Write the structure tokens for this entry.
Amino acid sequence: MIRQYRQPLTLIAGYCLIASLLTTTAFAQLVCLPAPRLLTTKPMGGQVGTSFDVKITGQNLDKSDKLSFSHPGISAKQKLGKDGQPVPYTYEVTIAKDCPKGIHEARVLTRLGVSSTRVFNVGELPEAIQSKANTSLETAMKLDLNSICNAVMTRQKIDFYTFEANKGQRIIVDCAAKGIDSKLNPVVIIADEKGMDLQVERRGGMLDFEVPETGKYVIKLHGLTYDGGPYHFYRLAIRDVAKGEVVSRQPAIQAVNAFSWPPVGLTGKTIRPESEPNNQHAQAQKITLPCDITGSFYPAADVDTFEFTAKKGEVWWVEVASERLGRPTDPSIVVQYVSGEASKETLTDVVELSDIATPIKVSSNGYSYDGPPYNAGSSDIIGKVEIKQDGVHRLQLRDLFGGTRNDPKNIYRLIIRKAEPDFALVGWALHMNLRNGDRSAYSKPIALRAGATMPIEVVVVRRDGFTGEIDLFMDNLPEGVSAAGLRIPKGKTRGIMLISSEANAPRGLTSAAFFGRATINGKLVTRPCRMASMQWPIRDASGEVPSPRLLVDVPVSVSNSELAPITIAPAEKKVWEVTAGEKLTIPLVHARRSEFSGANITLKTYGDGFERVPAFDAPLTKDSSQAVLDLAVLKTAPGDYQISFYGYAVVKYRENLEAVASAKTALMQAQQEAEALTAEAKKLADVAKTAPDAQRVNANTAAKEAAKKAKSAEAIVATSDKQLKSATARSKPKDIVDIIVSTPITIRVNPAKKAK
């Protein structure tokens, strides 16, 4: 189990007031302004060097005019219909021949900015799409060997496929689901031609099947609980492979805690395998330090024992990766000193190692309640071994719950090294910690409204005794967007990255570079910061367990379709100077663009050295306020700092007012066109009544055509009227609780003057 240590600085401590405001479940779910979210792509990937159509679905995808990917080798353009107009939510995607195979990210640029991402898998096998129901043996879809089928599971149904193979062939059937963001827990079965089961995999794994006789075989696939629907998609791969060939699964997403693996510079040059049998002390595998060993927790209850010689005073660091390799394991190590020989030997415990502690306390219930719903800790190991005596030592490595696991794929990597101080970083969009007020666990793309500042929480796993401070920074941001990192202090595990857009920033999207920088052993080192997000937006996590994962890149966008409800900024863009022990007053200006429920916003402070600033109120009905920082109380040491003020406000959000204005214009134009056509039809009808017999047929025909056009125009008026009513209804003010963060403020604390 992951041990939880210190309580983090939560975003808004307490939240008693907001909990009382949000008195119903429905109202409590209105947290954070709408964000675009990409939910499905079909297909979910493609073959290198091919082009094909991709259809998308999602939330808040208004004016989605650009589908983009995390790698430039995948491009897309909107598909045009026969009339030359864009086909809604459909794109023509091309994968270059040199595009890397594996997991990539798809996202769409919308009116509100970039959407959350969805996995897009690139491979080398030909691809097919499930185009019609195949929920019976009679309607089974035929698959070619060495191909992939993109499909969606129907609720309470079984999907059937057939393939042909020769006796003795080795067939691998691999269903990718959880690893590509799907909600499906697949059960995969290989059956004979009549549908009688031959081999079953119920844990989402793959089937390794030796064909008993030449002929036709059936693949049956269903959800573990026969669940299904548009979010239960999968990629079914069937391959013909050589006997003895090591077969890899289809590429898959990574859990959040995988960010801390591997250590920088790790290679396989010195790696060696464990040697079985090594379970008993008498069978201990002899090793020399340092070492790099690969093995597996197999068979069940496996204990791998290693023996080495070390000298008093030596310090070694031990790291084990298994859970971070995607395995359901919990490694544990005991190191013992060995004295005596054979039957008279004595074992003295030196140290027991388990778990990489979570950098900050995570939420106690899966959603953002009393901490983030992201766990950066791991059941893997990073720990120190201090040698107390010269001589032989034994290290025993086991899976704590391995007695019930019997899977050779439960591999591990064991590294023992001299100290190599370092760090690894991961970040995620902050959410509100509203006790009893918010059960949501949303995916939150970095989709900035112009004038907004978005906080990203960043945590660190420190390696081999590194305790130094870490500066955070970002590059390659859209025009009008800047980033300020509130550093991770010495010995601490948490910092904040603030991403801000100017009020006049143009619409834009980039894949940003996110880093941390620190001085280690006198050298300046830079390490990437991974980003994490929820796979699915969950409005009520009491009914669905949130599923966070790592992203491939860091997409950042800015949109001017809607402006931030309020921008709080210092009155001047400058370095605010203060002498240690004195007071600093910072005037703040409020650029208000929305109405709010409540007269004030209570602000607290982000930033090393200033987090103990007492909360203060700023008026939401006025254009200014001020913050007073008492350094005599804070005892902030001289130096340069960056801070920000943050709080929440209940915004009277009005959705897409531009749509209302556009709908009004469209209705007016439709009414004018209909009136003109109606008048023309009436005029032609009157002419037909008095037309001479020779002209009456043509006149009646013209009158009927005009009447038909007038009727069509009236239908357009009715449609336009519905669209206006719909846009007006959506634009009615809704109370939404939103995070409000000021733009970054730079402070220089000067040393106090020495008394003469």
About this structure: Residues 670 and 717 are 5 Å apart (CA to CA). The chain is about 10% helix and 45% strand. Residues 37-123 form a domain with the Immunoglobulin-like fold (CATH 2.60.40.10). Helices lie at 16-21, 25-28, 631-634, 657-690, 693-730.
